[in-house]
Amino acid sequence: MTAGAGPGRVLLRVDTGACCRSGACSLVAPDLFDQGDDGKVVLRTPHPPDDLLEAAEEAADYCPVSAIQLETLPE
């Protein structure tokens, strides 16, 4: 989906209200996600670099409540 989209061309969004605190995102992509003191997801950057796009997609896939979305931005 996002391969070759270019740096800054993908927008990463998280729904902290939907987050169930599983921590899967921060395990799969620790450069992109962390967990706050309450255990909920913390997004480190909304625009993942190309070398982290696959990790971002995996984190979205592993999220049990689909609280992570990737959007390819128009040119």
TrEMBL record:
Pfam families: Fer4_13
Keyword Cell wall biogenesis/degradation: no
InterPro entries hit by this protein: 3Fe4S_ferredoxin, Fe-S_cluster_ET
Cofactor: [3Fe-4S] cluster
Coiled coil stretches, renumbered: none
Keyword list, A-Z: 3Fe-4S, Electron transport, Iron, Iron-sulfur, Metal-binding, Transport
Superkingdom in the source lineage: Bacteria
Its biological purpose: Ferredoxins are iron-sulfur proteins that transfer electrons in a wide variety of metabolic reactions.
The protein, known as: Ferredoxin
